[in-house]
Design a protein that fits this description.
single chain, 46 residues, mainly alpha
């Protein structure tokens, strides 16, 4: 039971940190912060 609770805490903390990085600081995985959000959500085939 304790391991399950610790797992949930880790997931919640990771989601909070990840959301802060993306939405507060504007950093994206594609490393192009000037890209509009709608364009960034569409994957490009290279």
């Amino acid at each position: 039971m304790l391991v399950a609770v610790l797992g949930w805490v880790a997931l919640l903390f990771g989601g909070w940190v990840g959301g802060s990085i993306v939405f507060v600081y504007g950093m994206r995985v594609i490393m192009e912060p000037s890209t509009p959000t709608r364009e960034a959500l569409k994957p490009k085939l290279r």
